[in-house]
Design goal:
Blueprint: H1 13-24, E1 31-32, H2 34-41, H3 45-58, E2 61-64, E3 67-70, H4 75-85, H5 87-102, E4 105-112, E5 115-122, E6 137-139, H6 144-150, H7 155-162, H8 178-191, E7 194-197, E8 204-212, E9 218-227, H9 233-260
Length: 268
């Protein structure tokens, strides 16, 4: 495998390769052979084999008759991130309240390159076009959660973020040119909230608001998601949106307060 560009003297290549192997598993290929993993990561087969067997011993990968697959323990890596931020503990009661008031699913996601990745969710048992869970990844631009975060970026950073290829494996229905994209994000910036109406996929309608830290920086987005055949745009804007904006403000205020608490308070 060629050397990675822009790495420092303390860069641990073996760790990077292990993470490459974990990331190689995608929704459309949950089980992969040794050869498939090696091809996906551009690693030599012996190196890939050692990494996979190490991950098997650590409990992050299991080996079966048809190949290798991730185990639920991989979720610990993402949960550790969410818990380290304190975001879930802060947001959960507010999300549960919003879910009860709207009878719709409520989610929080953060930008990761040109994608969003879901980090918290309170769901209602409804059938929707796309399955969403913690760790689900979608292209950011056609989602309400992505729009509220992209709209907060400086122009140069926005271009750099959107230039990165999506890793979601999903092609969205909305493919705007630069002018349409910029006009949409200007509107989101002016309103302070975003809506998507079947831009990501048929049947998916949602409205989102930004979540901010104590400095006012946007750190995530929160949305209410519904099925387009069940909930009209008017219902989303007139009923769900005011509740969402209040919850977003409450979570942001709590998140800001959390940031002012000395870390020693949490020491055991």
């Amino acid at each position: 495998m060629p050397a990675r560009p822009d790495t420092g003297p303390d860069f641990i290549e073996a760790l990077a390769r292990g993470l490459d192997v974990i990331r190689a598993f995608q929704p459309l290929r949950p089980v992969m052979t040794l050869s498939e993993v090696a091809a996906a990561t551009d690693l030599a087969r012996p190196t890939t084999r050692r990494i996979l067997l190490t991950l098997v011993e650590l409990g992050y990968v299991r080996q079966g008759e048809n190949g290798f697959a991730l185990t639920p323990r991989v979720l610990d890596l993402g949960v550790a991130y969410v818990r380290s931020m304190g975001l879930w503990d802060v947001a959960r009661p507010h999300m549960e309240r919003l879910c009860a008031l709207t009878d719709e699913s409520v989610s929080i996601a953060q930008l990761d390159g040109s994608d969003i990745i879901y980090v918290a969710r309170v769901a209602v048992p409804k059938i929707v076009t796309l399955s969403v869970q913690i760790g689900t990844r979608f292209p950011a631009l056609p989602t309400s959660l992505g729009k509220v975060q992209l709209a907060a970026l400086p122009p140069a950073e926005l271009e750099a973020v959107l230039a990165q290829p999506t890793r979601s494996g999903l092609t969205s229905r909305w493919q705007p040119d630069a002018a349409e994209r910029d006009a949409e994000l200007r509107d989101v910036r002016a309103r302070g909230w975003a809506m998507t109406d079947e831009q990501l996929a048929l049947g998916i309608r949602s409205v989102a608001a930004p979540l901010r830290d104590g400095s006012g920086a946007v750190v995530a987005g929160i949305n209410v998601n519904c099925h387009a055949s069940e909930t009209s745009v008017d219902r989303m804007v007139e009923h769900h949106l005011p509740l969402l904006l209040q919850v977003a403000a409450d979570i942001s205020a709590d998140f800001a307060r959390l940031g002012t608490v000395p870390h020693e308070v949490f020491a055991s």
